[in-house]
Each structure stands twice: as structure tokens, then as C-alpha cells.
């Protein structure tokens, strides 16, 4: 893939040098990135309607709740409130794992390592 990228970059550079990319229609305009290329074309309209209606998939809501609970657990000191929040976090983790047919424990470990590396 690196060779393909090199050839593409070389051809783009040559076209820029020759002025072939000057005054193209849409130059300086923002790109329309509303369509998700990973969504099949026949489902894009339905997804756009749901998105415009403010619908959020249950998995996204659960991930938001998971992140909020994780922050809460880290902010609480040892005690009853923290243990309750940790129990709820475990249950939510299992539910998310079922939604995705996977376990979040590996992802959580990866996430914490990534977070430590970035901070």
C-alpha cells in the first residue's frame, strides 16, 4: 500500500506543479462528509432520517453512561456509594459486551493504557 500512496502523492504533486488542479469547481468549499461511507447505500437515507430526528443507538447511550459511571467511580472515595457505582459499572459492561458480542475488559485495558500514554 505504501507504493500506491507514493505514486498517488507523486501524481498529485505533478498536477499541482502543472496547475491542473487550479480553479476546480468547489475549490475552497468545505467537503460534505454527512454520508457515512461504511453504511450501505440503501440504508443511508434511513440512517440520515434517524440522525436528523435525534435518535441515538442504544449502544451509544450505553457507552455514554459507561463513561459517566467510570468518571464517577474514579472521583468517589472508598465507601458504599463507590461500591454501588462499581456494581452498576460491571453490569453495564456486561450489557455492552452482549450488544457488541465481545468483552469490554480487553478494550478497557487498552483504553486505560492509551489514556496513560497520552497524558
Automatic annotation (TrEMBL):
One of its GO terms (molecular function) is ligase activity. Pfam families: DJC28_CD (PF09350). Residues 7-73 form the DnaJ homologue subfamily C member 28 conserved domain. Keywords: Ligase. InterPro entries: DnaJ_C_subfamily_28, DnaJ_homolog_subfam-C_membr-28. The keyword S-adenosyl-L-methionine does not apply. This is Threonine--tRNA ligase. It comes from Novimethylophilus kurashikiensis.
Amino acid at each position: 500500500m505504501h507504493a500506491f500512496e507514493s505514486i498517488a502523492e507523486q501524481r498529485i504533486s505533478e498536477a499541482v506543479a502543472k496547475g491542473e488542479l487550479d480553479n476546480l469547481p468547489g475549490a475552497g468549499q468545505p467537503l460534505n462528509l454527512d454520508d457515512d461511507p461504511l453504511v450501505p447505500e440503501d440504508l443511508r437515507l434511513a440512517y440520515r432520517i434517524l440522525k436528523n430526528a435525534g435518535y441515538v443507538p442504544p449502544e451509544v447511550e450505553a457507552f455514554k453512561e459507561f463513561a459517566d459511571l467510570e468518571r464517577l467511580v474514579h472521583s468517589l472515595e472508598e465507601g458504599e456509594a463507590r461500591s454501588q457505582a462499581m456494581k452498576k459499572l460491571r453490569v453495564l459492561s456486561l450489557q455492552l459486551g452482549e450488544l457488541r458480542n465481545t468483552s469490554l475488559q480487553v478494550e478497557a485495558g487498552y483504553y486505560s493504557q492509551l489514556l496513560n500514554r497520552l497524558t
